[in-house]
Amino acid sequence: MDAILETRGLSKQFLGFSAVSDVSLAVRRGSIHGLIGPNGAGKTTCFNLLTKFLPPSSGTIRFDGRDITRMKPAEVARLGLVRSFQISAVFPHLSVLENVRVALQRARGGSYDFWRSDAVLRRYDARARELLHEVGLAGFADQPAVELSYGRKRALEIATTLALEPTMMLLDEPTAGMTAEDVDRIVALVRRVAAGRTVLMVEHNLKVVEGLCDTITVLTRGKVLAEGPYAEVSRNPEVVAAYLGSDPAISGGAAHG
Ligand SMILES: Nc1ncnc2c1ncn2[C@@H]1O[C@H](COP(=O)(O)OP(=O)(O)OP(=O)(O)O)[C@@H](O)[C@H]1O
């Protein structure tokens, strides 16, 4: 398998407590990979290790053939492994277009180049408009970001992530706290931006996982319990038992939630 991201024996202890324990996972290039598991399973910790927001206690992480275990988030972002920013990273009083332009300027190291010519700024604007089009926000370019609905803020966040030209995107619960309508929009958006890229997402909504992910990894108590296609993994008795009482979609034993 052509794995773009691979971990071996990845572990993280907090004061002796193993939040992530000997996790070896491989994300196939070009796939949408879901990381799921019951509450407290270690998903967020694992995600923070992969995005370099936390240093591992032991184990290795390789991205695109390189050992990134000791790299900083900004370094791995330059290699093309980009974590979608938190909503708080959106500048509320800048327009939607300006938010993407700032992300482009940052990505190209020009954040303080206030002497940039109009021609350069126009080039950023043209690319920013393309990205807004890609995430379905073309009609909102001049609106202050603060006025966007929650779902559209997440779309803007994805546009600012795309500004960094990621080969692989890491999404932390992209549909958390959304209305059903926004969930459908984000699912369509993730599918669109995943074309030609690799996506790894932590997601609680199993309907979303089922609809989007090619492969899922199930964590429980910090360990990998199962890995494979949703239809197969959701029928795994150990997975059903781990979810029992916590999610009717899986604990019902069916692949449909
Ligand atoms: N900074 C920390 N210090 C101590 N313990 C931590 C820390 N971060 C996480 N943990 C513990 O590690 C375990 C895994 O937590 P984590 O947040 O990674 O799980 P999760 O699968 O993301 O859970 P949820 O679905 O509830 O968000 C939990 O028991 C948690 O209390």
From TrEMBL:
SUPFAM superfamilies: P-loop containing nucleoside triphosphate hydrolases. Keywords: ATP-binding, Nucleotide-binding, Transport. One of its GO terms (molecular function) is ATP binding. The keyword Nucleotide-binding applies. The keyword Transferase does not apply. InterPro entries: AAA+_ATPase (IPR003593), ABC_AA/LPS_Transport (IPR051120), ABC_transporter-like_ATP-bd (IPR003439), BCA_ABC_TP_C (IPR032823), P-loop_NTPase (IPR027417). It comes from the Bacteria. Residues 5-246 form the ABC transporter domain. Pfam families: ABC_tran (PF00005), BCA_ABC_TP_C (PF12399). This is ABC transporter ATP-binding protein. The lineage of its organism: Bacteria, Pseudomonadati, Pseudomonadota, Alphaproteobacteria, Acetobacterales. PROSITE patterns: ABC_TRANSPORTER_2.
